[in-house]
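Attaching the record inline, Q. Sequence:
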Amino acid sequence: MNLKEIPKKIEKNNEAEDKYASLEKIEAECWTQIANGCLKGKDPFHCFVLGTNSDFGVDLRTVVLRKVEGRKLFFHTDIRSPKVAQLKQSEFTSILFYDPARRIQLRIKAQVAFHQLDEISESLWQETRLSARKYYLSESPPGTELDSQFDTLPEHLHGFDPERSESEKGKENFLVVSLQALSIDWLFLHSQGHKRAIIQYLDSGYKANWINP
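Structure, as predicted:
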């Protein structure tokens, strides 16, 4: 090993140790990292895994984080998607973030709410690019069995984006899901010792505890 690399490694470890030295710092850093994930398309927290219950047990998929407001996270989906029906079976769900570079895992328990044709959905609809809006124009719901490899978008949209006026029809299938964080299970994986904490949100703020990794 090149001895010149050692001080840099130690400095990096000390920086991480300082950032995660207290429960207060950890709670604040969780939301900083989530907010950065929303803003930066290449950030590991730009997408997260959403869990639901299905007839065959737990169902998982990756969704894109579209907005963070307070302790609420938002994503959007087609209202005809099977995951919407699954989410409506219970008002609660769990989501997972993981950053392999920082070696940080967040497991968040959240309360689910839906927004369609209201101020929140309209705001996110206006931010949605035409290339994404066009999939809300599909003639069939997501998960529909197909006779070929091709989706059921109108033929003139294969490889092309719709005009803005045409895309507006997709708004009827556009649903925003909000997730109010109820707790965060934070895990930091480190060769010198893992750290784990539980943060539980209350009406008056939050309480946090270290727990055994």
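The chain has a mean pLDDT of 91. The beta strands are 47-54, 57-64, 67-69, 72-78, 92-99, 104-115, 174-188, 195-202, 205-210.

More tomorrow.
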